Each structure stands twice: as structure tokens, then as C-alpha cells.
Amino acid sequence: MSMLSLEQAPPPSAPFRFFFTAPVYGAAAGVLLALRADAVLLTRWAPETLAAVHLVAMGFMLQVMLGALLQFMPVAAGAPVWRPLVTAGFTHVGLNLGTLALVSGFLTGTPFLLKVAAVTLAATVLAFATVVGLGLAR
After folding, report:
1. What is the pTM of this model?
2. How far apart are the first and last CA of the chain?
3. For the stretch 14-35, what's the b/e string if a residue is b when 16 or more beta carbons lie within 10 angstroms of its beta carbon?
4. pLDDT in tens, 118-129
5. What is the CA radius of gyration of the chain?
6. CA–CA gap between residue 129 and residue 134 (Å, rounded)
7. How many CA atoms does the CB half-sphere of 135 hold within 13 Å?
8. DSSP, residue by residue, the chain
9. Among 100, 107, 99, 102, which residue's Cα sits nearest to residue 46?
10. In percent, how much of the chain has pLDDT > 90?
């Protein structure tokens, strides 16, 4: 049975940036629900509903999952992540920009914002998966 490799842990600022940002999106979803409950609860296809769901799913849950993976992979799986502060930096920025563009696109009905969100989020998640996958392959 392998032991935890605590010496391979990334600096705390790498995963914590995700953990500190996630509650902001949860609170934003709560504010949206409080201000627009009539629209959010009207139908699952309402723009406000889509925005609230993505605030929770991408803004809160995906933030926490990626931050946890950044910490978990080197420590428990023994798969060091390439330059954890760089990886955390571009992942955090890309995830936040993409999520904000997606939610803004839903709320304003702007197709350009939705396209920006799709490209940004796809590139960010693909880059993160590549970095983590390379760490696992080693």
C-alpha cells in the first residue's frame, strides 16, 4: 500500500484560489434566485434558470473539483502536476472568465458571449486535463 506523498503537495495558494472563489459563485446563484425567483423557477429553459444552474455547476462545483484535483493528484496518486502555480493560474482565470461569459450570455441573450464562453471553457478544461493526464502518464 502506498503512502501519501506530502512533499509533492503544491503550494497552498494553488488549490486554495479555487476553494476561495467557489463560494462567491454559490452566493451569486442565491442572489439570482432571490431576485428573480419567479423566472428561475418558471421553467428549466428560462435564461435565469440556466444562469443559476451554471453558477452552481461551473462556478461552484467545477471550481472545487479542479482545485481538489490539483491537490489530490500529487499527494494521493503520486502524479505531480506540471508547474502547479502556472497550471492553477491559467485554469483559474480561464474558468472564471468562461463561467462569467456563459452566465452573462444567458442573462443578456448575447450569442457572442456564449461563443466566447464555449471556447474559453473548452480550452481551459482541455489544458487542465492534458496537464493532469501527463502527470498521470509519468
Report:
1. 0.91
2. 19
3. bbebbeebbeebbebbeebbee
4. 999 999 999 999
5. 17
6. 8
7. 24
8. -PPP-GGGPPPTHHHHHHHHHHHHHHHHHHHHHHHSHHHHTT-TTSHHHHHHHHIIIIIIIIHHHHHHHHHHHHHHS--PPSSHHHHHHHHHHHHHHHHHHHHHHHHHT-HHHHHHHHHHHHHHHHHHHHHHHHHHH-
9. 107
10. 79
